[in-house]
Amino acid sequence: MKVGKRYKQAAELVKAGAYDVSTGFDTLLSLPKAKFDETIELHIRLGVDGRNADQQVRGVCVLPNGTGKSVKILVIAKGDKADDATKAGADYVGAEDIVAKIQGGWLDFDVCITTPDMMGVVGRVARVLGPKGLMPNPKSGTVTMDVTKAINDAKAGKVEYRLDKNNIIHVVIGKASFGKEKLVENYNTIMEAIVKAKPAAAKGQYLKSITIASSMGPGIKLQGNI
User: Fold this and answer.
1) Of 26, 58, 15, the residue nearest 221 (C-alpha)
2) Most exposed of 34, 67, 90, 156 (fewest Cβ within 10 Å)?
3) Is residue 121 classed exposed, middle or buried when 0-12, 13-18 and 19+ CB atoms within 10 A define those classes?
4) 91 close to 70: Cβ distance less than 8 angstroms
5) CA distance 210 to 213
6) What DSSP state is assigned to residue 15?
7) Taking a C-beta distance cutoff of 8 angstroms, is the pair 74, 98 a contact?
8) Per-residue pLDDT tens listing for the chain (226 residues)
9) Which of 146, 163, 182, 222 has the alpha carbon at shortest distance from 64?
10) Which residues pair with residue 39 across a beta bridge?
11) Whole-number Å distance between alpha carbons of 48 and 66
12) Any residues with CB less than 8 A from the CB of 110 and at least 6 apart, and which?
């Protein structure tokens, strides 16, 4: 894979081995910067086998300083719940009409929230929303009767974490412009949630590796051994 001059310069400044959290974020923020406000990502390899149902790791967490990203919210609901969604500031609200729009290829939203009674309708586009990570799910708080809370949480910086097929969790923890203090606070919050979510069936070392990176920069390994 070809990499740019700035990436090579940044990679040369990252030492081998793992940094403590404070030094790791200092290093991350001192690297040559892109011309835009880069997203800061966290990647955690876990010592579990996600192919087993009793070793799945999945949940949601509201970051205290948000993600720095404005999200477009779709709510699929009817009646009073649709009215609640509009009042709470959802970008799009609809029912069968909006599902038909999704079937036609429309996906201009970042979060999809629905009420339990509408899951039968939403199920028509499960094969479209699922692979995009947009399918509403009770575990992520996006299938709920309290659509106002779900909307507020999404706007406040709620992130969902889940294992990929390689038993790695990828999650956004903010923007470079946040500065060290806010990024570390977000990092500590999500790490605490993931540690608490350790499955009882998991054996041996739980946190195999922890890496932070800007969207255009090299990975920086952090210390962590549970």
Assistant:
1) 15
2) 156
3) middle
4) no
5) 10
6) P
7) yes
8) 566 788 888 888 898 899 999 999 999 999 998 899 999 999 999 999 999 999 999 898 999 999 998 899 999 999 999 999 999 999 999 999 999 999 999 999 999 999 999 999 999 999 999 998 899 999 889 999 999 999 999 998 889 899 999 999 999 999 999 999 999 999 999 999 999 999 999 989 999 999 999 988 999 999 976 5
9) 182
10) 175
11) 28
12) 69, 71, 72, 73, 134
Residue type (1 letter), 197: A
Spatial CB neighbours of 182, under 8 Å, sequence gap ≥ 6: 65, 174
Token pair 């609640």 is at which residue? Answer: 84
Locate 167 and state its tokens. Answer: 């038993």
